[in-house]
Amino acid sequence: MSDGTDLAAAVHAALREHGGTVAVAESLTGGLLAAALVDVPGASATFRGSVTAYATELKASVLGVDEGLLAVHGPVHPVVARQMADGVRRLLGATYGLATTGVAGPEPQDGLPVGTVHVACAGPGGTQTVSPVLSGQRARIRAATVTAALELLLERLASSGPPR
To answer: Is the pTM of this model over 0.90?
Structure first.
């Protein structure tokens, strides 16, 4: 198994222990995060589904990201990631929502350098965002973003207290 599959398996195990579910909203990763989660046998017990909102307007119309925020800051911003995670959690009825947005390259976007990434996790205790600065080729940045999202949810589950 790859590291991503190992992390996804650990996420599913932790979600089962806590009686939780997860849904994902993806932009930068374009479905890779959902794919990593569904690669694990038995994923249907804890994975609710995903929204790949690659187009900026879908972040607003489907996930509920504030249009004014998008107009001022663009789609690559930590608050956009937070609102995407909150939106997918609500939309798909999950305990936790994960979201990814960023610039994978090969060119900068909206004045932001390649490797600018924001990952958010929404859950019962609020929403947390991390912004790792990544480097490398497009595929490497996208894969590292999936890893960052899975690690963020695992850390969140570990700190949420004893399992149900």
So the answer is: yes
